[in-house]
Specification:
Strand 2 and strand 3 form a beta hairpin. The longest helix has 16 residues. The protein is built from 3 helices and 3 strands. By secondary structure, the protein is α+β, with helices and mostly antiparallel strands.
Length: about 100
């Protein structure tokens, strides 16, 4: 399953949980930010994340009004063990999205 997250939400999430303002220039930095958020908020400790193998992060740019005004969007692909029920996957993803939406 994949979700899309604006880079600004990851930046604000890291600022909230760790007090530092990061800069995201590539998917590797976004992955580090997501990992930090999951660890610091305790979401990784939740049963829904127990069977999460990894989160794959890719990026693209969305242009709002011109070639100069763009937002970095990151696609987060949640890679779970094969036998994880769909409801468990959805629950894990929803928890992360809820945290990021509250920021």
């Amino acid at each position: 399953m994949k979700i899309k997250v604006e880079g600004d939400k990851i930046i604000k999430g890291v600022k909230k949980v760790d007090g530092i303002e990061i800069v995201l220039e590539n998917p590797g930095e976004a992955k580090e930010g997501i990992d930090l958020i999951l660890r610091k908020t305790g979401l990784f400790d939740d049963d829904a994340y127990r069977d999460l193998k990894d989160i794959k992060v890719t990026a693209f740019e969305r242009y709002e009004t011109s070639a100069v005004d763009y937002k970095m969007i990151f696609l987060l692909e949640f890679l779970f063990e094969d036998d994880v029920p769909l409801d468990t996957k959805v629950s894990a993803i929803r928890e992360l999205q809820t945290f990021l939406d509250k920021i």
